[in-house]
Amino acid sequence: xxxxxxxxxxxxxxxxxxxxxxxxxxxxxxxxxxxxxxxxxxxxxxxxxxxxxxxxxxxxxxxxxxxxxxxxxxxxxxxxxxxxxxxxxxxxxxxxxxxxxxxxxxxxxxxxxxxxxxxxxxxxxxxxxxxxxxxxxxxxxxxxxxxxxxxxxxxxxxxxxxxxxxxx
Length: 168
Description:
The protein has four helices and ten strands; from the N terminus they run βαβαβαββαβββββ. It has 168 residues and is α/β, with parallel strands linked by helices.
């Protein structure tokens, strides 16, 4: 099961549209995960239309229309892997301990908000992933997103990608 993991797209505020490579990955993925800050409902509609399966949450920049359609926390079981998605996890300091306590029955927690890529594991075995942003890098050197593979309850081939901004 191939995953595309994105967050903080901020369309159309930070970018008019998602980069073409994100759409290509979304259409090829078995599951697309979006950890919030969509900004406009049109992107949700388009991702739903072009994805085989979409798991998403709303972020702090998402208004009532998105909040009416998306949860604050999404949970799914993907081939035995217990996934949770949320937009915010608080400050980096103490994140592992907070998340391990808040998500004890989760194997992988995807989050966004900071626009900073993150990949760590707590002492309880919870894996924390933040894909950064494919459209708003803020102080990061690159626009980014993640891909991964789920098989028999295991997350493998987690890869951070930089967006080729010249190919748009």
